[in-house]
């Protein structure tokens, strides 16, 4: 319990330091940090539309974050969530415009196929990780580029709708994921994301399989000794993580864009990984960190309107947070005696 | 001529644990000096003191007759001491020459002069007969060559005295022979070699002088030529005084475990088990004695399914365990108290109760339909903590907050509370205090009296004599003898552990794979 408190306070301190450094950067481009901060807050939470805008940005980050948490918990690092999201997004769109189905069924079919596409996309790296211990960081990150290019090829060369833009045809209305509010594109995907976060938490803390994969991440030698099949659980866990990543893409396409186009999701997969790392791989904590990143993204829209700061400043702040948090985790690990039972991945 | 190194009454404590107690060590220039002792005898601590990695609490260090203080390894290196660690510290993506000069690069105009480094490495390599290609990438090389690079690093820093910590542990027999050849070359050039080992044969083969450590104390320092392997074993394991033999009633049980002509390889690919056969009956404790590194670890790993056997069979009752997974072996009724308990036996960051769950998380009543029964887990944790007298704040406390003895009780509580028929117990009291040792021994006896078949592997002879009904002695992957635990002589054990059979013949360690 003490551990958890010290971990949380360390995390908070790291974020404070990052924000202070961010303030210095803002000063360097001669803008008032306070004004930037207030503008960000205003942009993210200033009125119901803006809050909805923040939730809209939070949704994909949260779902990708849960996908990352699932792999991190087992000591695995699925950094290919961005690619799984692209594949899922395209798959759901294809179901959305190619078939005619009753409304609810159409949405479920689209999301199901999106999850399947994400799962299929991670299956090869997962197999090689489980069977031959191929580094999944490298294989999943490489798969990202392939996913982006394949979906782009399919969009432009095969499914391009008549007219100018490189988009697929729009999905049928029966495949629309319902919106939460009349005034925003924020949709039921948020609820799905929250359910997934809570579900992942319950899975890890309440089920036998969740216990097995948690121990596999915490001390693989102990898990092996206890009879846990490391290969099988590794394969399983990466597949689930990939399926959730694919689902994130399906929700973006059925809930927000209603079609698929190039540059479909600007870095949601990576933001999700960072949100998960920031929450120390805890799915419930990821709800908070995803909201934080969603607010930064959404608040930054107003930044360029109301201040002289460019919205790239947000990227700078995010990078500073990542640096501070990684440094903080490293310091804490050094302090704790970690001679025995090494984790497979230090995050 | 002053001695190359002299340590005078070195004492080093870690909290209440005394790792070295008043150790004296005198190393003559131009000799190979071996330091031998069981795991935990204090060999590595002593060398770390000499290399400036640890500061002694008492005592003094003399190099070439001059008293020195070594606050850090840099000071030791400056005094001409170099250390080759057991685990190499090389950068795989750099070349041999770049590794040798890492941290002391030869520069030209502020840039690394690779040509000069390669030339200098080649020169050292020729001079000392350590064959390496300076331009090769380290990641592509074998362990034996990596060790040569480590030695070259030490030489490049001007060492006149070289410390090697268990240098042969990772080497193949041929690589070991090459290493010994190199070491003899060093002393011929007037350098001094200090090497740590628990392998009797190599100490006998290569050293001029040997110092024996036991429980942190220096037992003897003698010229190697005056000693036999059996003398060394006697000095390493010491007199048997600590525990009394536990009283017991004979239990005539059926055969539970049958091991037949078992062979297995170690991590180097060498045969660590060479045709091991034995039985364990219900209500019987069979002890495995032997100097560490004679196949005991591999035997435990094969029996628990963590290492494949290359030949032979293991049978539990009527079930063949040969080739089964760790999970299936557990399921068949084998419990395992592992020798490296902090690595394999527990997840130190998890709570006591989650550690008690391992291995049965998907069995009723611990879980139903895949959902862990938290009420049952809490209730069982409470009962086990009470029954095994685990001293912990609560069942939710992380295991790392417990003492060594209590961590071992967590492992025992978990492994002994299942329905296993065969208990594989490896080094149950290593690093455990006296009070907890007593409790653990009593618990093992209780399991025996309840009719469990127990295999007890221990490097502590007094523990085996206190508990075992029969003692099997392992040497070089074979069983040397099967002795009655109640009537065993210390001398007889010592001979068998040194590889001398009952007719006085020396069994040779086979150096082939």
TrEMBL record, chain A:
Keywords: Cell membrane, Membrane, Sugar transport, Transmembrane, Transmembrane helix, Transport. It is a multi-pass membrane protein. The keyword Nucleus does not apply. One of its GO terms (cellular component) is plasma membrane. The chain crosses the membrane at residues 12-30, 50-72, 79-99, 105-128, 140-159, 186-204, 268-293, 313-331. Its main location: membrane. GO terms for molecular function: transmembrane transporter activity. It is found in: Cell membrane. InterPro entries: ABC_transp_permease. This is Simple sugar transport system permease protein. It comes from Kaistia soli DSM 19436.
From TrEMBL, chain B:
Its main location: membrane. SMART domains: AAA. The keyword Repeat applies. Belongs to the ABC transporter superfamily. It holds the Pfam family ABC_tran. One of its GO terms (molecular function) is ATP binding. It is found in: Cell membrane. Keywords: ATP-binding, Cell membrane, Membrane, Nucleotide-binding, Repeat, Sugar transport, Translocase, Transport. One of its GO terms (cellular component) is plasma membrane. It is a peripheral membrane protein. InterPro entries: AAA+_ATPase (IPR003593), ABC_carbohydrate_import_ATPase (IPR050107), ABC_transporter-like_ATP-bd (IPR003439), ABC_transporter-like_CS (IPR017871), P-loop_NTPase (IPR027417). The keyword Oxidoreductase does not apply. This is Simple sugar transport system ATP-binding protein. Residues 5-240, 257-501 form the ABC transporter domain.
